[in-house]
Amino acid sequence: MLVAVLTTEPLGRALDYRAPPGGCFVGAFVEVPLGPRRVMGVVWGPGEGGFDPAKIRPVGRVLDAAPMGDAMRAFLMRAADYTLTPMPAMLRLATRAPGLADPPGPRRVYRRGRGEPDRMTDARARVMDVLDEYGGAAFNLGELAALAGVSTSVVKGLVKQGAVAEEDAPRDLPYPRLDPGLPGKALAEDQAAAAERLRAAVASARYGTTLLKGVTGSGKTEVYLEAVAECLRQGRQALVLLPEIALTAEFLSRVEDRFGARPGEWHSGVTQTERRRLWRMAGEGGVGLVVGARSALFLPFRDLGLIVVDEEHDTSYKQEDGALYNARDMAVLRASLCDAQVVLASATPCLETWVNAEAGKYARIDLTSRFGTAELPEMRAIDMRAEKLETNRWISPTLAAAVRARIEGGEQALLFLNRRGYAPVTICRACGHQIGCDHCDARMVEHRFLKRLVCHQCGETKPMPETCPSCGAAGRLAPVGPGVERLAEEVAERFPDARVAVLSSDLFASARALKEKIAEIAGGGADIIIGTQLVAKGHNFPLLTLVGVIDADLGLQGSDLRAAERTFQLMRQVSGRAGRSERPGVALLQTCQPEHPVIRAILSGEEEAFWRAEAAERQAAGMPPFGRLAGIVLSSPDVQGVFDFGNELARRDAPLRRIGAQVFGPAPAPIARVRGRHRVRLLVKAAKGVALQPALADWVGQLRPPANLRVSIDIDPQSFW
Ligand SMILES: [Zn+2]
Ligand SMILES: [Zn+2]
Question: Residue 650 burial by CB count (10 A; 0-12/13-18/19+): exposed, middle or buried?
Answer without folding.
Answer: middle
